[in-house]
Amino acid sequence: MELGSVQDQSASTFSLTDEDHTLANSLRFTLNQDPRVTFCGYSIPHPSDARVNIRVQTTGDPASEVFKDSCQDLMLICQHVRSTFDHAVTNFKN
Amino acid sequence: MAKVPIWDLPDVPTGELPPHIQLQRTRVFCKSDAPTNTENIQYSGAYASMGVDNSLRLDQFRSNFKVEVMRLNEDDMEFDMIGIDPSIANAFRRILIAELPTMAIEKVLIANNTSVIQDEVLAHRLGLIPIKVDPRLFDYMSENDVPNEKNTIVFKLHVRCERGDARLTEKRRLTVVVLIFNWLVTEWYFKMAMACYAVTSDELKWLPNGSEFPLAPENSASNSTSRPKTYTSFSCSQDSLPQFSKNPITLKHPDIIIAKLGLGQEIELEAHAVKGMGKTHAKWSPVATAWYRMLPEVVLLQEIEDEKATELVQKCPTKVFDIEDVGKGKKRATVARPRDCTLCRECIRGEGWENYVALRLTIESTGALPPEVLFTEAVKILEDKCER
């Protein structure tokens, strides 16, 4: 669930429910690698609620676009990891 | 003055970092008191003044990323991931421990328990037993669902300890020495055989037809079905499903001791296993554990020779160093097995070497599924999270 965009499109906070450090830290990493991003961070308001706030500030591009792009990047990274891993395992077995 | 192309001028940044910063960027230093330089420089513009782009290009990641499998058994595996960031590696580790679903016993219907193990302790122990079945073949069961063959596995346990049972083992022998304090010393040996029968996990039998305990109260008026209503309503026997007809559902380890019974004690129960995730309770975690660590790289700053070399080789508890004979009778220490280095820093206590740490990942799993499958499942789960 994403909410919390402000009038200024280039900076906003995304609040995701039912998430924790697992996704948030990897998303923060991929967001940081994007050259359009000036600031990126995440926080967990309270450890008992499964909620994560991710803050993104960009150089002009709308923040939700950048966020979606980095989610896509993370998915591609995962797919690549998975295929490389499968290759390595089949190589090892032979 | 000869015309020199501008690229050859030495002070134009060539797009590469000077070597010491490159070292700082890719390695964590491990000094004698504490590791330094542990933060990743993730920010894409960090080296902008040097003209180097720190951002992650997907193709760059693809070309740099490698996986090497070190060891692969049925129960565990160890592999290296080179070129990945620790935050993603940690995400994989967290998913492997907490968010991969498995089947574990959740509800235990106890008909008779006269053993010394309390009901709840017995149920707790049953829940922790790993079940050898592919959890992808089952659905989750929510609170409103009726347990049926798509979301429940039923096991039965009915054991009784009889006198003269072949499985009894003699447990204790009590020796009593009695001293009578006049001139006669007498010894009596009392042999008290305390017989115990250990209930192992292979006593748990799989019931492909579902529960056998009838649901109470049995209403004779509504006896339209020929079969009495039980705690589960399996519409067809799990045996007939194609996945299970060839591989019956068993427990992973048949020799886990569940309880111990004395003479005349009995346990009769039925256990229902459902699908769950490690997040809810650790019994649903598919791995014994999974961990990763960075690959250590040991660099000797100076030449170490002769007695210092032998001293160094002896110091290291995991035998990381080796002696190499360089001619003229001198010996030199080399780093032979950096992988074994546990970063105990025993070798640094003397003088100055340095340890660097690069990046690798080790995963150990137990289990119902072979470990490589587990890992791919974990990666898939991370992907699915992103899609939301």
Automatic annotation (TrEMBL), chain A:
Its main location: nucleus. GO terms for cellular component: RNA polymerase I complex; RNA polymerase III complex. InterPro entries: RBP11-like, RBP11-like_dimer, RNA_pol_Rpb11_13-16kDa_CS, RNAP_AC19, Rpo11-like. GO terms for molecular function: DNA binding; DNA-directed RNA polymerase activity; protein dimerization activity. One of its GO terms (biological process) is transcription elongation by RNA polymerase I. It comes from the Eukaryota. The keyword Repressor does not apply. Keywords: DNA-directed RNA polymerase, Nucleus, Transcription. Belongs to the archaeal Rpo11/eukaryotic RPB11/RPC19 RNA polymerase subunit family. PANTHER family: DNA-DIRECTED RNA POLYMERASE I,II,III, DNA-DIRECTED RNA POLYMERASES I AND III SUBUNIT RPAC2. This is DNA-directed RNA polymerases I and III subunit RPAC2. It comes from Escallonia herrerae.
Automatic annotation (TrEMBL), chain B:
Residues 76-388 form the DNA-directed RNA polymerase RpoA/D/Rpb3-type domain. InterPro entries: DNA-dir_RNA_pol_30-40kDasu_CS (IPR001514), DNA-dir_RNA_pol_insert (IPR011262), DNA-dir_RNA_pol_RpoA/D/Rpb3 (IPR011263), RBP11-like (IPR036603), RNAP_Rpo3/Rpb3/RPAC1 (IPR022842), RNAPI/III_AC40 (IPR033901), RNApol_insert_sf (IPR036643), Rpo3/RPB3_RNA_Pol_subunit (IPR050518). CDD domains: RNAP_I_II_AC40. Gene3D superfamilies: DNA-directed RNA polymerase, insert domain, RNA polymerase, RBP11-like subunit. It comes from the Eukaryota. GO terms for cellular component: RNA polymerase I complex; RNA polymerase III complex. GO terms for molecular function: DNA binding; DNA-directed RNA polymerase activity; protein dimerization activity. Keywords: DNA-directed RNA polymerase, Nucleus, Transcription. GO terms for biological process: DNA-templated transcription. It is found in: Nucleus. Belongs to the archaeal Rpo3/eukaryotic RPB3 RNA polymerase subunit family. This is DNA-directed RNA polymerases I and III subunit RPAC1.
